[in-house]
Amino acid sequence: MSEQEMQLEVSFLKKKISELQQEIEKLKSATTEEEYFRKKSAETLAYREQQLRETKKRHFDTVSLWGLYGIKDMKQFKSVSLPIFSTATGAPYESLVDAALHLSYEVINDPNKIYSRIDNTTIDHLAMKIAALEGKTIPELTQGLCVSSGMAAVFMSTMPFLEVGDEFVSSNRVYGGTQQLFDVTYPKMGWKARWVTSPWDIDAWNEQITSKTKFLYVESPSNPTLFVADLPELAKLAHDHNVPLIVDSTLASPALLRPLEHGADIVVHSITKVMGSSGRAIGGAIVAKEHIVTNVPDLADNFAVKVKGGHFRNLGPCLHPPSAAAIWDNLNSLQIRVKALCERALKIAQFLEQHEKITHVNYPGLPSHPQHEIAKKLMKFEDGTNGYGYLMSFNLKGDINTAKRFSLLFNFGVQVTDLGRDYTTWIGNHN
Ligand SMILES: Cc1ncc(COP(=O)(O)O)c(C=O)c1O
Hints:
Layout: H1 3-29, H2 33-55, H3 60-66, H4 71-77, H5 96-103, H6 121-135, E1 142-147, H7 150-158, E2 167-171, H8 176-189, E3 192-196, H9 202-208, E4 213-219, H10 231-240, E5 245-248, E6 266-270, E7 284-289, H11 303-315, H12 321-330, H13 334-354, E8 358-362, H14 372-378, E9 393-396, H15 400-409, E10 414-415, E11 425-426
Parallel strand pairs: 2-3, 2-4, 4-5, 5-6, 10-11
Antiparallel strand pairs: 1-7, 6-7, 8-9
Helix pairs in contact: 3-6, 6-12
Bound molecules: pyridoxal-5'-phosphate.
């Protein structure tokens, strides 16, 4: 064995001894069992925070591949792939004190020790990966929460702010499910949406803000109208009124648009779509900055963590762990896929715009799109190149019979209520 090899072996052994010594020191320095568990928890939190800070220096593709799932986790779980913890509960508590601390959410040594409706290692890793991707380009730390669907994410990101009689202001260019939630379900709880019918006009937003406003809500790009919001302007307006800006950026994904970078406080996703491109799962995600602007003081710090330990726990819209693992895997290639989808979508949009049987193509990548310049400013991949998303709409020249004929003759892709897949999906409508 050479001198150099010898040194390497010695340093390996020293590292192992040092790890064991640290554990012994922790045990020795704790005077009570509770102190020991709290110290361990603080250490786990600090480790995840340190990992999260490191993701800000990494490439987007590296973060989308691993998230915060590191060598330490691989060794603990004896698996390079993220394991699927699909059981209702995981590890037993070590003692009464350990149980009490976990159940009061004061320590987080092992998410699997808490009942799976509330916390689960597989789902936690998905939430941490998405939080890292959304927060990659900002100095602040981010926190994520994964839920059972995109709709659950819209609900869980908004309801914590609202008391009976409260209001919020929303762009009227939102996905139909969100419109129904805000217009049909929320009034039953005593919550009122004030709709902005020209969301490109910042004064129109301002006019809807009252002393009862708890947040501004926007979908960008919007489904299916492809409205693109001027997020820095909207965030400024929201913050001038001491309320948060909540953005549903499902149609962009963090590969293309990171609303927190442009001033938003909370991002919402249906991870059913391009983030879970295989289409094997329904899911939703919320990512919030550690500190948000809000006139509800209790929610100003650690919004996502508080929702998880509070309303999310109480309501129970948890994600299915195998779904979390499927989406975690799908995220591996997010940027590469979104780039390819954007390039192809732009070519198709340009082709359709020239077609004599089409009256209008609605795609933010076309200079004819009313918010093309805003999209150009905000929708960027890591290398600074633009992408304009994977959804477009177009109008056929003619009447309903033209549309019917088109749907029978068009033999490309699949006609479904779905989007963000690796294959083309489409759906027709007439009004
Ligand atoms: C922009 C947007 N937000 C939210 C949702 C709801 O997501 P999910 O179907 O995962 O509940 C959708 C669904 O199409 C959507 O397009």
